[in-house]
Design brief:
The chain is α+β, with helices and mostly antiparallel strands. 57% of the residues lie in helices and 11% in strands. The protein is built from 22 helices and 10 strands. It has helices spanning 5-12, 18-34, 46-59, 64-72, 75-79, 83-105, 124-143, 145-160, 167-187, 191-205, 207-219, 221-241, 256-265, 286-299, 341-360, 364-370, 376-391, 398-403, 429-436, 438-442, 480-483, 487-502, and strands at residues 246-253, 277-283, 308-309, 322-327, 333-340, 410-414, 420-424, 444-449, 452-454, 466-470. The chain has a 5-stranded mixed beta sheet. It has a 3-stranded antiparallel beta sheet with strand order 9-8-10. The chain has a two-stranded antiparallel ribbon with strand order 6-7. The chain starts with a helix and ends with a helix. Manganese (II) ion is lined by residues 49, 73-74, 154.
């Protein structure tokens, strides 16, 4: 779909000042001139890409700097504009954002390694270089969280236009999206973008599976929609008689990729998945959420084991909501989600929603006191990032950058080939080895971290390059179970030990 600057200002004028709008307009005119005569692979004018990126950022309710950064994000990389000129016209903040994106843009994960056979000893130096680049990317992103948000919006539009690229390149980009960008969006709590990125990547990474899931869902789609409408009507009626106000209530289809992952867990049996479609309710406040849950349970029996209180116990990324699965109309099973408007916005836009509130609603202190949408621990993480970002007006050291662990409950470690492994904090080389292959885990004897030998109880750090040393005679041992953190390693070690006992 073709976009114009008017699409962006229409959204922004609801929450930005006239001065902000002028800044955005100026950024648009600058970008349009810079990209004049350039076209995208899908034959669109290049500026369309800038507009789509900025529009996503506007929909997330972000500030004028980020939206301008979105409009200008490719001017240095693709239109040879000098960063100094950006700084002269738009100031330090915006030029820093554009520069951040440009640096991140140079990083290409596993570009040369789309084919296994191209992996060659000769590539070793280049390999090291790429790993270093990837590490830089995470650090650059962590410096100013808005760089990540622009990058995600940029990636979303690239994914939407991926059909115009040669098949192999499209698949590489889609794989990277699934491995890096979707988890990143998830960690930042931006469910909306995470879901879109995954579904778009799914088409290219696992085309056959994608078609299978799509037709599986499609078959009964219409019937399901009709049913959900009936459910919504019934629930509205009950709540009205109890005089509880709901701000919004609607049906929601599950993202295809998350459905695919769920199906894999349930032996591909779609009848075991109850939340193909869920009813989502937005209530005025948290206590109303609980009241609504009570009223619904009084009328419809819940399925044991499916009641989740993520309001009092939020997910690690800050997600809050009440979930329940009930025996509903005609004895069918239906999932219900209940949350407040702020919790909902946080679920869709995560860290971006936080940004919005910090700027528009009041001082950060307020948000902390009222504990609006995140557990203390998570808020700490986000405000650390915000503070950190402020500090960056003066250059900070690389070391400091690493210190604040951006991915606080997950770490990224790399194979010598540059594959990224996403592991829980506290993971050891054995976890890493099992994440590569059962056989590598089973014969793991030691590890070299960033070139240095370590023992197997070494705790992996974010950005570590891990080389597993294997030995034929090495095998899983009972005491490994005390070291490992991943379920995968645990089940495989246990499996081995059990088998040995039997023999
Ligand atoms: Mn771009």
């Amino acid at each position: 779909m073709k976009r114009s600057i008017g699409d962006i200002t229409r959204i922004c004028q609801k929450y930005l000042t006239q001065k902000d709008l002028e800044k955005i307009q100026k950024a648009f005119e600058f970008a349009q001139k810079a990209h004049q005569g350039q076209y995208r692979r899908n034959k669109d004018e290049f500026i369309q890409h800038s507009l789509h990126t900025a529009l996503t950022l506007a929909q997330m309710g972000l500030d004028a700097e980020t939206i301008s950064g979105g409009l200008l994000h490719d001017t240095v990389e693709d239109a040879q504009i000098n960063p100094k000129e950006i700084e002269k016209n738009f100031g330090h903040q915006i030029s820093n954002l554009v520069w951040g994106i440009t640096r991140v843009g140079k990083v290409r994960l596993k570009k040369e390694w789309a084919n296994q056979e191209l992996i060659d000893q000769k590539l070793d130096d280049r390999t090291k270089n790429q790993i270093e680049n990837l590490r830089k990317m995470f650090v650059a992103m962590a410096k100013d969280v808005r760089v990540v948000l622009i990058k995600l919006a940029d990636r979303l539009h690239n994914m939407e236009t991926l059909y115009a690229l040669p098949a192999q390149k499209a698949k590489r980009i889609a794989t990277e999206t699934l491995e890096i960008y979707a988890p990143l969006a998830h960690r930042l709590g931006i469910g909306e973008i995470k879901g879109k990125l995954e579904d778009l990547a799914f088409i290219y990474v696992l085309p056959a599976e994608y078609r299978r899931i799509k037709s599986l869902v499609g078959e009964k789609d219409q019937e399901r929609k009709t049913y959900i409408k009936k459910v919504i009507k019934a629930i509205k009626k009950i709540l009205k008689s109890e005089e509880i106000e709901v701000l919004d209530i609607d049906g929601r289809a599950k993202h295809l990729y998350s459905l695919y992952k769920k199906l894999k867990k349930h032996d591909n049996d779609i009848s075991k998945i109850y939340d193909l479609m869920a009813v989502r309710m937005i209530a005025s406040n948290a206590s109303d959420c609980y009241k609504i849950l009570g009223i619904i349970h009084e009328k419809y029996k819940p399925l044991p084991g499916y009641i989740k209180d993520y309001i009092s116990m939020p997910k690690p990324n800050g997600y809050q909501s009440l979930h329940t699965t009930i025996f509903c109309l005609d004895g069918r099973i239906c999932e219900i989600q209940i949350r407040t408007k702020k919790m909902h916005e946080h679920a869709e836009y995560g860290v971006a929603a936080h940004w919005h509130y910090t700027n528009k609603i009041g001082p950060k202190k307020d948000i902390e006191q009222k504990g609006i949408f995140a557990p203390k621990k998570d808020l700490g993480w986000i405000s650390d990032l915000a503070r950190w970002q402020e500090k960056l007006k003066s250059p900070t050291e690389f070391k400091n950058a690493i210190k604040l662990d951006f991915f606080s409950d997950r770490i990224f470690a790399f194979t010598p080939q540059g594959d990224v492994k996403n592991l829980p904090v506290g993971a050891c080389p054995i976890d890493f080895a099992y994440s590569i292959h059962t056989e590598v885990g089973g014969h793991c004897q030691g590890a070299r971290i960033n070139g240095k030998m370590v023992s197997l109880d070494y705790e992996l750090k974010n950005g570590d390059m891990v080389e597993i040393i294997k030995a034929k005679r090495a095998h899983p041992r009972q005491d490994w179970l005390k070291l490992i953190k991943t379920a995968e390693a645990r089940s495989k070690i246990r499996g081995y030990l059990r088998k040995k006992e039997v023999i």
